[in-house]
Amino acid sequence: SKGAFDRMVGVVHAEFRPRGIRAYNLDPGLVMTEAMKIRGMEALFAGRIFWAPPEVPGAVMGWLASAPEAVDLAGTRIDAQALCAQLKLVPGFELPG
Fold it and tell me: CB of 51 within 8 A of CB of 32?
């Protein structure tokens, strides 16, 4: 299904672009939710698997919806964590390494 969504976003964007509607396929990566923290997954993943707080995909969605330059990414798959780190949308959030 991930591959289908990657292909479909370009078609949706092309179809609705004349109406001023942009389509993106946002890949949030692993997001550590409150439910995951309660289950002890934060400690389980520590140092082994990189995760982001929910603010990261939220900030990217806000940027995609409001930034004029986001139109350049319309019709594509967006890696939320990479874009968030690149644009410094969430203070203190950085990718490892």
Answer: yes
DSSP secondary structure code for residue 72 in this structure: G
Question: Per DSSP, what are the bridge partners of residue 79?
Answer: 27
Token pair listed for 38? 């309660």
Interatomic CA distance for residues 59 and 70, integer angstroms: 13
Burial of residue 15 (number of CB atoms within 10 Å: 0-12, 13-18, 19+): exposed
Q: Which two tokens stand for residue 37?
A: 């923290």
Contacts for 45 with CB less than 8 Å, ≥ 6 apart: 30, 32, 51
Q: What are the tens digits of pLDDT across the range 45-54? A: 887 888 899 9
For residue 44, pLDDT beyond 90: no
Q: Name which of 50, 53, 47 is nearest 90 in CA terms.
A: 53
